[in-house]
């Protein structure tokens, strides 16, 4: 989980976009409980840059625990 968050923060900074509020809430919840994040469901418009930051972070971190990724109204 920490590798994914580091990669996501770096990608967001490189692309010059806003950090997703939903991912921030998910990361706070899972960091405090030391559990693995197994789903990411976003309803916020993140655009193609936000989607790229998210997917690149998952690939970079080699995060195998994700079971579900759903993007509604993401404007991608």
Q: What general form does the structure show?
A: globular
Number of domains: 1
For the largest sheet, list the strands in their spatial order: 1-2
Determine Rg (CA atoms, Å).
11 Å
Strand content: 5-15%
Give an overview in words:
This protein has 76 residues and is mostly helical. The protein has one domain (2-71). The protein contains three helices and two strands, in the order H-H-E-H-E. It has a two-stranded parallel sheet. It starts with a helix and ends in a 5-residue tail after the last strand. The model has no long low-confidence stretch (mean pLDDT 86).
What topology does this entry show?
Elements: H1 2-15, H2 21-33, E1 39-42, H3 47-61, E2 68-71
Parallel strand pairs: 1-2
Throw out a few tags for this protein:
mainly alpha, two-stranded parallel sheet, single chain, 76 residues
Provide a short characterization of the protein structure:
The chain is mostly helical and 76 residues long. The chain has helices at residues 2-15, 21-33, 47-61; strands at residues 39-42, 68-71. Strand 1, helix 3 and strand 2 (68-71) form a beta-alpha-beta unit.
